[in-house]
Amino acid sequence: MNDPIVDEVRRVRDAHAARFNYDLDAIFQDIKEKEKKSGLQFVHGIARQPVPPQVLQPTGAASSVSGSSTLSEAAPADELGRSAGEVDGDG
């Protein structure tokens, strides 16, 4: 389904980029000039740096499920992708 507002925003964005031959540096400079003239801040000039993935450290042995627990108590059936009473090969 097309959204007329999204379509219009994309047309305007494309027309603006085409004015600068899709050169990101030129587009950025244009935005910064408009920003100065308006007195508002449109774009922060410093790019955010990606956050490095955190390395997971072992915290110790995992706690086990007690022997009296059933499969449905250990994890909800919808998380396992099968019904709680279903055993591999039975369904």
Give Rg in angstroms. 27 Å
Please tally the β strands and state the result: 0
Please state the overall shape, judged from the principal axes of the Cα atoms. Answer: elongated
Strand content: under 5%
SSE ordering = HHHH
What does this structure look like?
The protein is an all-alpha fold and 91 residues long. It has a domain at 8-38. The chain is built from four helices and no strands. The longest helix has 16 residues, at 4-19. The chain is elongated.
Structural topology:
Blueprint: H1 4-19, H2 24-38, H3 71-74, H4 77-80
Summarize it:
By secondary structure, the protein is mainly α. Helices cover 43% and strands 0% of the residues.
Describe the structure using short key phrases.
43% helix, 91 residues, 4 helices, elongated, mainly alpha
